[in-house]
Amino acid sequence: MFSALVFTSLSASPIAAGQSKFLGDIIGSSVPENWDTYWNQATYENGCKWGTVQPSSGSFSCGQCDVAYNHCQTKGIPFKYHTFVWGSQEPGWISGADAKSAVTNLIKAAAGRYKPQLIDVVNEALHAPSSIRNGLGGSGSTGWDWVVMSFEIAKSAFGSGSKLLINDYGIVNDAGAVQRYPGIINILKGKSLIDGIGIQCHQFNVNTLAAATITANVNSLGATGLPVYPSELDINGNSEADQLQIYQRVFPALWTNTNIKGITLWGYIDGETWKGGTGLVACGNIGCRERPAMVWLKEYVASTHV
Questions:
Q1: pLDDT value for 261
Q2: Domain encompassing residue 189
Q3: What is the reported pLDDT for 139?
Q4: How many independent structural domains does the chain possess?
Q5: 214 near 172, Cβ under 8 Å?
Q6: Coil/strand/helix, residue 29
Q7: pLDDT score for 10
Q8: Residue 219 belongs to a domain with what CATH number?
Q9: Are 122 and 85 in contact (CB under 8 A)?
Q10: Which residues contact 218 (CB under 8 A, 6 or more apart)?
């Protein structure tokens, strides 16, 4: 069985090297030895989230976030900051803080330390809105004033040097969400505050999704005139063969869509991913074995230039 599979080579180039789109992945507390053999864009999994970088109101702890950022700087690849305003993994102290001042201080501190190519300014506005949204303007006149204010603060701090994104899950598989999401996006676009659209694409959104549905929904988002970034793609299955078949259905519909400018996976080492069975490389005492989906992914991207 193992003779038909491929073991990783640390001399290999990233999968999407030379392509017009990046194919990235997350970095955690350290950079895996074989990370650069696959990926050419990075997002820190948890280390840049508000609860991690500012555990108390008077201090910042950026060491974890630095790991991914510094690696991207060294390799000359895009780094995405994930994320500023989100209803999960918020520090407990913000419940009693002045919301606008707290968000402004967070974003200004990040802007003074990092120059990310991409930023998830607001995460999961539809599904996990920030607990301090009323302090950021609440619904207001637009229905999404708290999102607008968050983007205004980010725009002021980062200027035009970073692409500002909104990000959410449950979009690519939900016709209703595809109708609601552009409502926020077009408000931001009308104020020249947004540069791209994030769609998370976790296994619970895409495993059973038809390729034609992916194409139709991405095209609907692309009709806003903004690029789309699948930001947290992961796929599992009942077996390695099942995972491969799902990748073969889902990934081409994303990779070849002209509205999509880059894809970020949410982990790749078996046993170290957020959702069980989503790993693409199984590592052990004798090295790392590429699962069939990874073997196919490398071959597919190499033969499908975009």
A1: 98
A2: 2-303
A3: 98
A4: 1
A5: yes
A6: coil
A7: 55
A8: 3.20.20.80
A9: yes
A10: 172, 199, 228, 253, 254, 257, 259, 260
